[in-house]
Amino acid sequence: MSLPASALPDLAALTAATNDNPVADFTDTPLWLTLVKALLIFVYLLLSTLLVIWFERRVIGRMQQRPGPNRNGPFGLLQTLADGMKLMLKEDVRPKASDVIVFTLAPLITATMAFVSFAIMPMAGEVSMFGHTTPFQLTDTPVAVLLVLAVAGVGIYGVVLAGWSSGSTYPLIGGLRSSAQMISYEIAMGLSLVAVFLYAGSMSTSQIVAAQSSLWFVVPAFFSFFVYVITMVGETNRLPFDLAEGEGELTGGFHTEFGSMRFAMFFLGEYINMFTVSALATTMFLGGYAAPPGIAAINGGMFDEGWWGLFWFTAKLWAFIFVFVWLRGSLPRVRYDQFMRFGWKFLIPSTLLWVVLVAFFRAGQNGWMTFLPDVTVAGRVFPGSSLALVGVVAVLALVGGWMWDARAERKEAALHPHVEDEIDPYAGGHPVPPMPGQRLREPSLSAPALTGTSDTEEATRG
Fold this sequence. Notes:
disordered N terminus; two-stranded antiparallel ribbon; 6 strands; two-stranded antiparallel sheet; mainly alpha; disordered C terminus
């Protein structure tokens, strides 16, 4: 796509600004402080996992009108700890036909890869720790988001190797189904994030959060957010997309033969992945650690500085976790072929079209679309190009919905041909009972009377 000459200086300035400060500033962060932050993030994730398991069981219990865990500790808070101790003390059984090394390596890959992705998440802005001012983020790179996608791709190996190394049929099928599902939805997930890269002008997580200081990307990149929320549920193998663990089909899926701490590693990896994809959604679309717009303006932004960022980041994170739990307690499992068809035939093509539209309008924002005025609503400035993009997508969605409904009506009509509301039971020469919902028409003059006499007798009498 060729850009007008007037657009080149603005794009060049944006590129220069991005290159001057591509990542977060860690100049005042010694090595020992980095290790301390790594330990804090590790403890944060472990405690969050213990809490989310209890939270999920209690919330789904309330949804289904049952109490949930309420015995161990106050409100059942120690039930997850008791379950963890049971797994640690349980006998470790390994199938005779399994591969010893790979059988042990698979759960370790799944668990460790889940922790690695959280290293680039900015959980707060600059904070003061032990006399040093440092971002509450373990590390940052100019392509930090690509690192998350790459680590998620490596995590697939743990699932595939678990199914293969078990030496059993059902785990192998579950591993293959899970790998196909995760790879398919990672494509749509990666494409949904391209629009955010175009708006932020960077793939660094810290710079993406900084670019949302005036407007969260959930507004201009609303379709990317919609696609990402669907793909993150499919990526984590959670209901209604837990097709790799269909108990009625595969017993337990790829981890059927795993027990004790090996199973605990898969269990831990699944819940850490929930936090990872939720943290990425918070960072990419909801302003990261920034306070909500109304609260950020209180007392000159005092609730939007320092350690307050960790509070807002955690609150947004748990909002996504509640959506995970809500879906599990509300929706049934979809069919595998329906889920894969939805990913390949709808999500990926529609996301590709969305990325092209965003690139087109972003280029026009600095060129031929400069005549569109910006709109200010409640102190927020909405670029005219973004509003035009929303309008175009809305029109396309209406046209697509109309075409979809028309296609569905034609398909329904083909499956269920039109049936008359009123029929003549003797129209074919012999009585025919009515279909459900039909009425009997008054018998025609040629129809024989129901008197019990035959046609020969009627003719003789005549």
